[in-house]
Write a structure and sequence with these properties.
Shape: globular
Number of strands: 0
Helix content: 40-55%
Largest sheet: none
Order of helices and strands: HHHHH
Length: 103
């Protein structure tokens, strides 16, 4: 279960915004190649469906040719990213899973 779907969406929006403002105007496919990752994984990050590792974020920031300060400023434009994500204890309870029984 994703603990912060709004945060992932905001992160994806920020990355997409930075990519589209890049003078080179790279497509998602080109940006994925620059960042040395699969195109579908990169696209899922921009859509807010994937939670990138620090290494993937580093590759994206480096691929965009921007500083971490610039990246941070873009992230700061999204208020949801300034809030602390919920903790495990605050997560809604998951339905109890039925144990599979052999016949």
């Amino acid at each position: 279960m994703n603990r912060n779907p709004d945060g992932l969406q905001a992160l994806g929006d920020a990355i997409e915004s930075l990519r589209k403002r890049d003078d080179r105007r790279p497509s998602q496919e080109r940006m994925a190649a620059i960042a040395d990752m699969d195109r579908t994984h990169y696209a899922s990050i921009e859509r807010g469906m994937a939670n990138p590792t620090f290494e993937k974020l580093w590759a994206i920031v480096s691929g965009l040719g921007i500083t971490w300060e610039t990246f941070g400023r873009e992230l700061d434009r999204h208020s949801v990213l300034r809030r602390r994500p919920i903790t495990r204890s605050q997560m809604p309870a998951r339905r109890a899973m039925r144990k599979w029984k052999e016949p």
